[in-house]
Amino acid sequence: MVVDLRSDTFTMPSREMLATILTAELGDDVWGEDPTVAHLEALAAKKLGKEAGLLVTSGTQGNLVSNMTHLNSGDGIVLEAESHTYLNEAGGFSSIIGAYPFLVKGKNGAMNPKDVEEILTRPYNVHFAEPKLLCIENTHNHAGGTVIPKENIDTLAKIAHENEVAVHIDGARIFNAAIASGTPAAKLVENADSVQICLSKGLGCPVGSVIVGTEEFIHRARKNRKILGGGMRQAGIIAAPGIYALNNMIDRLAEDHMHAKIIAKELEKIPIKLKPVETNIIYGDLSKTKWTASEIQNRFENKGIKVSRMGEDLFRMVTYLNISRSDINTVVATIPEVFQ
Where are the CATH 3.40.640.10 domain residues in the chain? Predict the structure, then answer.
């Protein structure tokens, strides 16, 4: 038996979730006639406190559609330097939109408002791209699944809006942030103009994400989704599991967080340097040890445990709904054997 901790994208839908597909009422969503899709979009918007929603195929597509809707070619986009949109989405904002990135190095994924303000208040100069969008990732993957505090988001949004800059939140794991912080997701994103949420990570769906915003924003985003080939027909077979997830799978994320902390507690005995473990992601930094990430990855795999190598000195573990407490116990028992 293999314990796969590479990513929460390896979640498998439950029988109850799959059963919703068989009874889903379907129609042609490009024509706006799939009632199950409409239900999911309205539910997601309500959960996030926004007016409307739009089903998309993935988090990457959701971020790209949102960015396309906010930006024109040549506009600037402000991003945390290790954000998923910048590092892991194939440069879509540049190659598709023609946007220019302004990078801000954050602390545990959170950008310093002063750094952002410096970019947004720079006097007009014909030589420079003009920033028109600020993107915030919550939770922040490369920072270790850390929660971006509401106070930080609100301050950044205030600065952005005072400078006529829109705010998009890459909330692929926003419900992890909500559960970990005890703050409702709608409150976390109340000052954002658009939000992307992923259904196929901790919420356990086989595919799909939703973007939310104003009705006017979603109206324009729908055309951009079509441009990217994201118009789907009987998409209720994707939406039905999403409805089930939003109604049943959010609160249980706390279990994943607990499991991650159990593993982290054992790793701290090695000791190795860990990024803050606040949700379901664990990053181990081996730069001050005798091991490389490849070596540790291989040692774990030889014990039946899969982890991700995120660089020469970094490895990652991610807990999710298909990782049981028994699996966690197996990992904990194996850690001393791997790091010897």
Answer: 14-248
Query: What is the C-alpha to C-alpha distance for residues 169 and 134, in angstroms, rounded to an integer?
Result: 8
pLDDT reported for residue 271: 83
Q: What is the pLDDT of residue 340?
A: 87
Q: How far apart are CA 134 and CA 85, in angstroms?
A: 12
Q: Domain 252-338: which topology?
A: Aspartate Aminotransferase, domain 1 (3.90.1150)
- Mapped onto helix, strand or coil, the DSSP state of residue 134 is strand
Strands (E), 208-332: 209-213, 273-274, 281-285, 305-306, 308-309, 314-318
Please indicate, yes or no, whether the overall pTM of this predicted structure exceeds 0.90.
Answer: yes
CATH 3.90.1150.10 residue spans of the chain:
252-338
Low-confidence ranges of the chain (pLDDT < 50): none
DSSP 97: I
DSSP secondary structure, 178-237, as one string: HHHHT--HHHHTTT-SEEEEESSSTT--SS-EEEEE-HHHHHHHHHHHHHTT---SSTHH
β-strand partners of 274:
284
Tell me which fold the domain 14-248 belongs to: Aspartate Aminotransferase; domain 2 (3.40.640)
Q: What is the pLDDT of residue 134?
A: 98
| pLDDT tens digits, one per residue of 110-151 | 999 999 999 999 999 999 999 999 999 999 999 999 999 999
Instruction: Check residue 1 and give its pLDDT.
Output: 81
Neighbours of 170 (CB within 10 A): 30
> Residue 21 half-sphere exposure, CB side, CA atoms within 13 Å?
13
pLDDT of residue 90: 95
State the pLDDT at residue 124: 93
Q: How many residues does the chain have?
A: 340
